[in-house]
């Protein structure tokens, strides 16, 4: 807190991919009372492979058949592709059942 004022200064490291729309969201949730100042600090390589799929039996046991744990590199890659209007491979419906109608067929 800045002395003599009602201003709080909060410093945090936020990935650039997560910062799109951040300022608008902060203003919206605080009714315009907070305004962030975003400054580029540094860059860092994401070590995970966005195209990784489990292949060995150990990986299947640890991550499951579909590796449902979210791959951050894949998430960022897909977000950039969507933003640029490029093709993104994603499943709309993974598990669905046919909906039954309430009325009888005549």
TrEMBL record:
Q: Sorted alphabetically, which SUPFAM superfamilies does this protein's record hold?
A: EF-G C-terminal domain-like
GO terms (molecular function) for this protein are: GTPase activity; ribosome binding
GO CC terms for this protein? cytosol; ribonucleoprotein complex
- What is the residue range of the signal peptide feature? none
Q: Which residues form the Elongation factor EFG domain?
A: 4-47
Q: Name one GO biological process term.
A: cytosolic ribosome assembly
A Pfam match is: EFG_C
Coiled-coil positions: none
UniProt-listed Gene3D superfamilies = 3.30.70.240
Read off the InterPro entries from this record. Answer: EFG_III/V, EFG_V-like
PANTHER family tied to this protein: ELONGATION FACTOR-LIKE GTPASE 1, TRANSLATION ELONGATION FACTOR-RELATED
Q: What is this protein called?
A: EFL1 GTPase
**Organism encoding this protein:** Alectura lathami (Australian brush turkey)
Q: Which lineage do the record's taxonomy fields give for this organism?
A: Eukaryota, Metazoa, Chordata, Craniata, Vertebrata
């Amino acid at each position: 807190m800045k002395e003599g004022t009602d201003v709080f200064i909060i410093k945090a490291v936020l990935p650039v991919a997560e910062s799109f729309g951040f300022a608008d969201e902060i203003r919206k949730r605080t009714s315009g009372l907070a305004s962030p100042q975003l400054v580029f600090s540094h860059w860092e390589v994401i070590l995970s492979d966005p195209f990784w799929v489990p292949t060995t039996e150990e990986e299947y046991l640890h991550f499951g058949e579909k590796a449902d744990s979210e791959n951050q590199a894949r998430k960022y890659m897909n977000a950039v592709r969507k933003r640029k209007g490029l093709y993104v491979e994603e499943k709309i419906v993974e598990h669905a059942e046919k909906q039954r109608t309430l009325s009888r067929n005549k």
